Structure formats: structure tokens, C-alpha cells
Amino acid sequence: MIGKQIARWTMAWFASALCCLIASLGFAAVGLAGPGGWAAGTAMATVHLFALGWLCQMMIGALIQFTPVLCARPLKMPGLSLPALLLTGLGTAMLAAGFLSMDGWVLGQNLLGLAPAVVVAGFGLTAVMLVPTLLAGQGLRQAEVRMVALALIALAGLWGTGTAMALTLAGYNLLPVFIPDALPLHVLLGTGGFLTLAAFGVSYKLFAMFLLAPDRDGPLRKAVFGMAALVVVLVLGLAGSILARGPRLPLGLLVAVAGAVTAGLYLVEMLRLWRSRHRLQTEVNMRWSRAAMICLAMSAALMVPTFRWGAAWAEAAMFLALVGWLSTLTLAQMVKIVSFLTWIQVFAPQIGRRPVPLVSDLTDARFAGRCLGLWATGVAGGTFAIAVGHPLLFQVSAMILLVAVLGLTRELLAIRRLRHLDPARLPDHLPPLVLPVPLRSSSDDHALPA
Amino acid sequence: MTTPCPLELDVRPQLARGEEPFAAIMEATDRLQPGQSLRLIAPFRPAPLFSVMANRGFGVSDRRRPDGAWEVVFAPLEDAVLDPGLAPGSTPGAALWPDPSHVLDLAGLMPPEPMVRILETLAGMQAGEVLFALLDREPMFLFPELAQRGHEWAGNLAPDGMSYRLLIRSGGPDRAVHHG
């Protein structure tokens, strides 16, 4: 039913994700991951802190917050959010530590074998909250809901392929796979499947809202979904064939072409949305989301040629997708989302009772824009470094990305603490920085026998 | 199938401390299992809550206990929906409300501006007066604020999906309004 519309643990999901982002960029900046060294245990740990710890946790936190907005329905069983967060965070840490076994840390093998079970418990609780909410009411008739549901199917495939590889690396003979076969599918299901499709679904609604553009479910949106569904089915089919030790199907090029077309169609629709906007003066989150879109276009354009050009270009395409497209989009929107939710938390109860500031007053848009510009510079440098195989340039780029994120973290803290507002306008009590507002009454209630 | 035991929430200690129990009541309601009732113990008859809980699909029964406290049971109604086509949370019977005395066209405004305009208008309206607002999308963040302030609402998306129509019946001027 309709209750408070701010999910209680959203800020905690975001904070946990940001910690993983800072840690992974720190590791990359000191040379623990980079071109020519992705197979090392430290590099795998860094990549998973980034992809699972930062991007997946951020996306799950955002979905828990925005699925009710997409569906106009309250979230089912919101109390599972905290256990889901704890399990996902713990699973990420175990997985990252477990990968160190590849560099000779024997104890890590057990962690690597156990981590998938912890991660799936977190994902499972997330699905228990999201799936019934997505299916209620209008449900799958809405384009954005269909897209998020498809993303969750890809998430299951991401976990399945990841588990098979983790168990194989840990020395268990439960789901033995040939890693070079399974790895590209795992990367595609995560980057192109779960993360990109969930970002598509959420962006339909949020972009229309932030740009004041008409939000229509037209033929283009249906085509994006159709192509995306085709890609997910193909990749899941390939993954199933590998896990069942079936034949190696020569569908890689078809997947790459279909994936690139899906991204292209989505970008055409976003371009139309941008052009039909009523809000001519756009805010910093939307201006930098354009940079994310450019990275998506470049990454999609690279998908097919990588078949000829080789591994370095495939890695550059993945870097562009994970760091350029998904992370730039997430960081840019995070500034807006955190300021909006903070405004609702603090000032919604005061509307009509005293003057309230604008949401934009909570943010130093110029500073946030500079940080996002620095981030984009790091993305460009990192992509180039991977394409030409230059570890030192990659390290420098990771340092630039790290500085940009530390700047954005400072800005997010300033937003949560209302530091950009006139101190005279501040309320007496601010909500906690990361944790939910405590419910003082919860010790007073208890279930009684009827 | 067994009916779960009612969840009991005693708000007397909280009120005695001078705290506002509304958030705790909504939180307890959110935690109810399907079919579970909420038994609320309060030092007075919490009449303003009845319409809020009716909006959320609960029937109400209340009694005064020998110790002077009020015991109110909010039981979920099996088929609590309402006029077809209305969004969940809408007040049943909104069709019988008087004609709107205030009309706001809030299309083309960036959230949360529609919410600000609606709540500011409601602050000056008398109990029972009705406000009609036209919006671009469902104002999900407005609803808890309306419930908390004792206003009732009913809304739905226009058939073409391009606008949201919202009727709000004022529960009376905001007692906490500070003018000037």
C-alpha cells in the first residue's frame, strides 16, 4: 500500500557502492589491474569490486527505490532491503578476496567457492522484493517494467555463469566450465544484460521526468525490447550449452550485431526524447548523461569490429561500457537523485508551513560538473590506454577517475548535510547521513496471539 | 488458511514523550502480512487516522477499554478496491465529493514543484473543500504527505497515459501552519 515513498536503505546501498568504487579505483591506480594483467587475481578482485560492488549494488539500490515509481505500486516486503544489502556487500568482499587465491593465497579458494552462495542470497532477496512489485497492476504492459524484468533474467544468467567459473577456479568439480568460453558470456550478461537493460528501463521514466519530455511507449521502444530480449535469449542459450557441455554454437557475431543494434535503437529514442524536451535549460545530471550516451554508442560501435581487431579492443569496449556508459550515467544521476531524496526527506513536511528551497539549491552544480568532466577525461584516457596496451597511462587514468569520484563523494556529503543552503534556512534536525531515520516506536510494538 | 495474529502497536508511550506516532503507525502498516490486522492502542480515539487507513484498504472497529484507552483494530478489507480505474490508495466514493473549488494545471512542471503547489494550496483550504490537479505523472512522493496531513485523495492516469488526474478533499487547514 502507499506508504513512505523513500526506500529506507537507499542511501546505504549508494554508500556501500561508492566505497567499492573508491576501493577498486584505488587498486587500479596503484597498478593492481590494467592492460596486459587482467587475468591476475588482484585484477579480478578489482574488476569485481567495480562491476559487482559498485555498479550492481548501485543498480539494485536504485531499483529498490525506483521500481515503486515505475510501477506506481509500493515495494513488496521492503524489510528485505537491509539483509539483501548486507549479503550482497559480504558476497562482493568474499568474491574479491577469493580471487586472490589465483595469486597463491590458498585460503582464498574457500572464499571463492562460498561467495556465489552469499551473492545469490542477496540477489534472491532483491528479486523477492522486485519481481512481485513489477508484475502487479499494469506490470509487464509498461515498456520500462518489461525492460527491468528482462534485466533481472540476465542477472540470473550473470550469477549462473559467474558461479560456474568461481567454482571451477576454486577447484570444485560441480559445474566445470572452460573459462575462456564462459567469460565473454558472463561479461555480456552483466554489462550488456543486467546493468545496461536496467539502466534503459529506469532512464525511460527518469529522463522523461528530468527533461519534461513526453513519455511514450512507441514502436521504437518495443523494438529495443525485442532486440534486447533476442540478445538475452541468445546469450542464455549459449551459456546453457556451455554449462551442459553441449556444442559450441557459432553465434558470437550474431550476438554482437544484435547487441549493437539494440544500443543503437535505444540511443535513437533517447535522441528523440532529448529533442522533444520542454525544459531547454538542462541540469548537470542530464548534461553529463549525454557523455554516458556517447560512451554507449562508442562501445556498441566497437562490438562487431572487435571480432577482427582482437582482445585489446574488446577490453576497451568493455571499459567504455562499464566505466564510460554505466558509471558516468550513474554518477551524474546520483547527484540529482541524492539531492531530490534529501529534499523530500527534509522539506516535504514543511511545504505550505514555511518557505522551502528549490531542489537545485542543495547542489553545487558547477563543482559536480567539474568532477564529472574530470571523470570523462579519465574514461577517455583509460580507454585509450587499454586499446594501445599502456599500463602506466591506465594507472594515471585510474588516478584521475579516483580524484573525480572523491570530489563527487564530497559533493554528495555536502548535499546530505545541506551545506550549500543558507545556515539560517536549515532545519533543526537533519536525517542521518546514510542510515534510515530511526523508528523510535519499534520497541513498543509486538505481535500478540489473537 | 489461518489468519495471522494482529500486530499490536501501543502509541501511548510515544505520545507521552511528546512524539508524533504517525510514521510509526504507517511503518507498522507497511510491515503487516497479507490478511493481518493492526491493533492500535491510543489514549484517545484517533479519528483522523480512520480515513487514512480506509484509503489504504482497511476497515475499522474501535472500543474504549476499562482503563480509558482506545483500542482500534484496522482489518484489511478483502476486496478493498474501489472504483475501477482508480489508482491504489484512492479513497472509495470520491465520485460523491463536491465539485472542486480549486483547480491546478501542473502539467509541464518539474517534480517536486507540483507537490509544492498542491500542498501550498491545500494549506489555505477549508475541511471538505476539493482540489483538482492535472499532472504529467503520478505524484508518488505526494501521497504519504497527503495522508500525514489528513487529506483524502483519488486519482488515475488518463486513458492516453499522458496525464494524471488527481482529486484531493481537504481534511482542514493545516494546524501547524506558520504564517509570517
UniProtKB/TrEMBL annotation, chain B:
Domain of life: Bacteria
Pfam families: DUF2249
InterPro entries according to UniProt: DUF2249 (IPR018720), TusA-like_sf (IPR036868)
Domain (DUF2249): residue spans on this chain: 8-74, 103-168
The name this protein goes by in its record: DUF2249 domain-containing protein
